[in-house]
Amino acid sequence: MTADFRRLELPYVPSDTRSCDSAGSQRVVVVGAGPVGLTVAIDLVTQGVDVVLLDEDHRLSSGSRAICFAKRTLEIWDRLGCGARMVEKGVSWNVGKIFFGDEQIYAFDLLPDPGHLRPAFINLQQYFCEGFLYEHGTALARLEMRWRNKVIGIAQSDDGVTLSVDTPDGPYSLHAEYVVACDGSRSSIRRHMGLESKGTLFRDRFLIADVRMKAEFPAERWFWFDPPFHRNQSVLLHMQPDNVWRVDFQLGWDADPEVEKTPEKVIPRIRELLGPDAEFSLDWVSVYTFACQRMEKFRHGRVIFAGDAAHGVSPFGARGANSGVQDADNLAWKLRLVLEGRAPERLLDTYGAEREFAADENILNSTRSTDFITPKSKASRIFRDAVLRLAKDHPFARRLVNSGRLSVPAILRESVLNTTDVDKFEGGMVPGAPAMDAPIRTNGRPGWFLSMTGGEFMVIVFAGRSPLDRLVVESLESLRTDCIPVLSIVVIAADAHESRPRGVECVEDCEGLVARRFDAQPGTCYLLRPDQHVCGRWRQFDADLIRAAVARATCNEPSQG
Asked: Are 429 and 518 in contact (CB under 8 A)?
């Protein structure tokens, strides 16, 4: 049975009963226990790094808040052992529908191809997400979570960071080699360091109403432009678990937030949407404005910013929390290698470069969505409405409709960690792209490709129906013993049991989708980073090229020294 996470009080542990000295030194301190802070903490401890997680509160999210979690985010949580529970509780969806006035103008499918373990999105209230991550974290011995521990000061030195922390028992100091700031858009760490997050504030207001009811709406994303029940504005509808529905109403900049949150204002709006006889109750109500902004740099010495502390976007497209979880995914393996002394500290600069690029991409898409949804001039409104009318019958116009370009992972094409292609490939698995999933079989049992990857560097060799050369097998075995180990998977065709090499992990490409998605021929090999992003690919296996690519992907190339 799922706990009531909205009422759960998280335990405060007095300093004299903790497992470690409050004033002692920690390897990593993570500040902020939202989805991003919990994810980066779990990822680090899963990789063997001791973490102390601080949060000034003793409760999880007070409302549903972020509810749309994307396929890539679910794959990251799968790698950490948290994904299945999220999907089991969440509402899965792939289809969205666009309405103009009282007419549906078209529908879209975000995941039309078969052969994926996870849906395009799930809808799940943030308190469930945080609760599942919290419960997972309590079982990890290397993770210590300290609630009602508020950071009130920070100072850096050559060997680390000292935090001043206030508690119900009084203040104490905590030293860490690195601090990861995941403490939200109003980040106290950012403020204490005199840093800013700059961008654009959008002059509009939106009402969020979580409505508990039984309804016949399907598990889809419905977006209305200028509906008859809310003229000249927009409305968004999503299904959540437990018969809760999220409704977003555009209000306009002049709306009074406190007045608009009252039941006297909210209930009539809901009745206009559902009809006069609908039975429902309000679960949570909020009015928000938003900004698209980011810090200039995400890394400041030994303090690293992630999630809303580093960047913020509008809620259209579900790019906020999803991007933050991908920050965690990008950072954890790099920080682990630096702490272990197997990569130089400059590897952490690539976290900043890669995730700053991703933030700019999200801000651009989010800004364009907002401009389309809330046109700021008469000419913009005329253009938008003309596009919507055309979109009903003309597919070319649908590409111009923007009700929120929904979250997709950034493709890090220009990353310095990539090894440039020397062979010709087709398709989307370019260096810098996250690997795609596909069904496989291992020892006759069905499974999924991505479940075999992640956490370490991994070379994927496509053998097809041909036996793997003995020297290749020996080279794969030797790569496992390098300073930075490279694990391996050999992908064979479904009917190629005779060619299964001994001594290496083999998977059967039971539907041919792994080879198709990676544009693989017999002999093709790919190198994946610990975060499952492609960092090199070749048409023929060469252990020296793989070692050079690993050196490049960890900033260990001699030319980088």
From this structure: yes
- In the 3-class helix/strand/coil scheme, how is 22-34 assigned residue by residue? CCCEEEEEEECCC
- Give the pLDDT of residue 503: 72
Residue 495 burial (10 A CB sphere; 0-12, 13-18, 19+): exposed
Query: Mean pLDDT across the stretch 371-386?
Result: 92
pLDDT digits (tens, 9 = 90+) for 257-287: 999 999 999 999 999 999 988 999 999 999 9
* pLDDT tens per residue, range 485-505: 999 999 998 877 666 777 788
- Of 210, 221, 219, the C-alpha closest to 104 is 221
Q: Which residue has the tokens 């890090």?
A: 412
Q: Looking at the DSSP assignment, which residues form a beta bridge with residue 286?
A: 208
Question: If we measure between CA atoms, which residue out of 513, 559, 554 comes closest to residue 116?
Answer: 513
Cα dihedral value 351, 318, 240, 225, nearest 10:
180
Burial annotation 133-168 (CB, 10 A radius, 16+ → b, else e)? bbebbeebebbbbbbbbbbeebeeeeebbbbebebe
Domain ranges of the chain: 15-86+123-197+296-365, 439-560
Encoded tokens for 110: 């975000």
> Cβ(151)–Cβ(56) under 8 Å?
yes
CA distance 65 to 86: 16
507 closest CA partner among 494, 526, 518, 520? 494
Q: Give the mean pLDDT of the chain.
A: 93
Cross-strand pairs, 313: none
Q: Which CATH number is correct for 439-560, 3.40.50.2000, 3.40.30.10, 3.40.109.10, 3.10.180.10?
A: 3.40.30.10
Dihedral in degrees, nearest 10, Cα atoms 384, 389, 393, 396: -10
Give per-residue pLDDT as tens, 224-261.
999 999 999 999 999 999 999 999 999 988 999 999 99
Q: Return the CATH architecture of domain 15-86+123-197+296-365.
A: 3-Layer(bba) Sandwich (3.50)
Q: Is 488 exposed, middle or buried (0-12, 13-18, 19+ CB in 10 A)?
A: buried
Average pLDDT over residues 73-95: 97
- Please report the pLDDT score of residue 109 as a whole number: 95
Model confidence pTM above 0.85: yes
